[in-house]
């Protein structure tokens, strides 16, 4: 993997870059739709490509439980298995173990838990997390981290953060496929000093990329932005920065302004399945009666697989419980996010990201 | 609408024809996937087009209840509303009233019932059925018929059949959109004499096309085939013949051999949603463990939107309850049906439909 910094905005910390992987190129800032179980819910790889998506995220925890990484490896790796032939980032499974699994017990060695699917007793260690991701064959693998819920007692946050650094080093030292890059994950809750310490420690381990984890877990946006700004400032300029699990369109613009390059979030697809469409005039709730005979597309400025359908038809699909509703609005929302990234990249190149961000915010709030 | 008979098989009663409508051409024998609520479940119009589909069926009963035909008319008719810009046939709503609605009461005037959605009291008369279909703007509208369950007492079958003929005449005499053709529906249960009487009566009313209704409702296939053969023989050679709601691939080949031109059935999409795929080696149940690491596509001879995926991946999607499973296998099954129609048309043109049918049957049964 290779990361190239192409331009900076000048007035903000926003950056324009390019990630080159064995499975293709990703222009940054980039948004990765989430394909938890090897599919971005409701979209064929072809539809996904048509939204402007260049890279997706897949979940190691889910895929290791079902169908199992050995099946995916046998069938030629994630790209061959899923039909998405572009770049893929896999998470380490840590976040899912701590949020989905049962009877979770952490030790220095790793984490022991029961599968949320069949109750099977399993262990995830830093070495095992890298082994699974090697079998999956993703382009970017994430280190295993110890994730704690926020708020938690400060000593627990500190201890988890320190353990995450020790685990990151163990992950780094496992041999992996030559094409696969590893990203470290900065933890530390909302404690800026701890975040800075964690960043420095991880940077000294020299990873090809750095993620910021454990944010957007319920804290007010302003708190997240403050932590984010300070954390990013401690990361090396020549490495990509990835903000995990964030977020709303306004969060993405804010984070880009602080110098973040990569994002993933379930919001566009999860909201799409629930009849909520993102548009330049703010979110639209398609179940509302006011759309019953609205002939307009969701957003005239955003081409997507849903562009040729009226709001009235999309509303009908949701009321009639037809699969095509979730399919089309998910595709639209992903396309909306990708257009936001494309427009951000152009604005950064033109040195006018701050104006662009202001204009977007104004339109979203005016509705 | 214009129907042209292009070729006959010579050894069977199979025919090769072409239906020309305001929204495009349909090569016959033709299979129409069912888009009950204005969408063939799980498929975008583009995916549907890629399966080789030329014409779809939409259900008047469902669309009149929700969103209402006045909404669809206001938004430019079914094609504009649904995004499927090819030919559409609408049924009359009769079959659905008799199978889905509550408190159904029939009189000579029409049928009064309660909506299965909200319990609203509604009336469907022959005139109203044509009025709704005129508003929908379909290319082919079906007359309202009185459908009885099989088995029923003979006098009820006779009475319903006679009423269907009287209703057909009333439907014929309602003014409709100039581009819309009306098809009559032959009823008469499994009573061949009654079927022949009904056919003669309807033929004397001079419709542009004739459907055969009330079959494939639980009777043994051989009984259906016998009734079908005799009924078709009483219909004019220069008008298209449409067998409603049938059926399995073997039923389609049998019916084509008796001279049927058009079909509709929910089987490819309903089975697709339930992980059953049609192939030349017979149906495949994708949940079976034997497909867990099967790298082969569903059917190497049938190009479809699912062709680039392994059986192992498709099985994974169903076990993981991912929407993409139903989407891809529905698309495959519709593509399989369309290929069966395409191959049938070629076989008829070459005068070798009987051999083609034998070969297919042999392969389906050998597995």
Question: How would you describe this protein?
Answer:
The structure is a homodimer of 367-residue chains. Chain A has a domain of 195 residues: TIM Barrel (Alpha-Beta Barrel), CATH 3.20.20.105. With 367 residues, chain A is of the alpha/beta class. In chain A, the strands form four sheets. Chain A has an eight-stranded parallel β-barrel with strand order 4-5-6-10-11-12-13-14, surrounded by six helices. In chain A, strands 1-2-3 form a three-stranded antiparallel beta sheet. Chain A contains 14 helices and 16 strands. In chain A, helix 7 packs parallel to helix 8, helix 10 runs antiparallel to helix 14 and helix 11 runs antiparallel to helix 13.
Order of helices and strands of chain A: EEEEHEHHHEHEEEHEHEHEHEHEHEEHHH
Q: Give the spatial strand order of the biggest sheet of chain A.
A: 4-5-6-10-11-12-13-14
Percent helix among the residues of chain A?
Answer: 40-55%
Structural class of chain A: alpha/beta
- Name the quaternary structure: homodimer
Q: What is CATH's topology name of one domain in chain A?
A: TIM Barrel
């Amino acid at each position: 993997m290779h990361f190239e910094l192409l331009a900076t905005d000048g007035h903000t910390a926003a950056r324009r870059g390019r990630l080159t992987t064995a499975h293709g190129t990703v222009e940054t800032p980039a948004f990765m739709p989430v394909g938890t179980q090897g599919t971005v819910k409701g979209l064929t790889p072809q539809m996904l490509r048509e939204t402007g998506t260049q890279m997706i995220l897949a979940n190691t925890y889910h895929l290791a439980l079902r169908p199992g990484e050995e099946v995916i490896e046998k069938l030629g790796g994630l790209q061959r298995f899923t039909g998405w032939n572009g770049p893929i980032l896999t998470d380490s499974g840590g976040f899912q173990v701590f949020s989905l699994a049962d009877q979770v017990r952490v030790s220095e060695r790793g984490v022991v838990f029961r599968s949320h699917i069949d109750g099977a007793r399993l262990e995830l260690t830093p070495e095992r997390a890298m082994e699974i991701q090697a079998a999956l064959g993703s382009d970017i693998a994430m280190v295993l981290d110890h994730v704690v819920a926020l708020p938690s007692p400060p000593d627990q946050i500190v201890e988890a953060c320190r353990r995450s650094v020790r685990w990151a080093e163990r992950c780094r030292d496992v041999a992996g496929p030559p094409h696969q890059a590893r990203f470290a994950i900065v933890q530390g809750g909302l404690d800026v000093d701890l975040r800075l310490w964690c960043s420095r420690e991880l940077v000294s381990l020299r990873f090809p990329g750095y993620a910021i984890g454990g944010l957007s877990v319920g804290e007010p946006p302003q708190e997240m932005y403050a932590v984010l700004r300070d954390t990013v400032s401690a990361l090396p300029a020549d490495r990509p920065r990835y903000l995990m699990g964030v977020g709303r369109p306004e969060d993405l613009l804010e984070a880009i302004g602080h110098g973040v390059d990569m994002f993933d979030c379930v919001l566009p697809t999860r909201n799409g399945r629930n009849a909520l469409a993102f548009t330049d005039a703010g979110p639209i709730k398609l179940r509302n009666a006011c759309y019953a005979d609205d002939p307009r597309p969701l957003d005239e400025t955003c081409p997507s697989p849903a562009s040729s359908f009226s709001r009235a038809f999309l509303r009908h699909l949701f009321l009639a419980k037809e699969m095509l509703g979730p399919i089309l609005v998910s595709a639209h929302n992903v396309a909306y996010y990708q257009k936001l990234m494309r427009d951000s990249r152009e604005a950064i190149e033109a040195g006018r990201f701050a104006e662009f961000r202001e204009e977007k915010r104004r339109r979203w709030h005016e509705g």
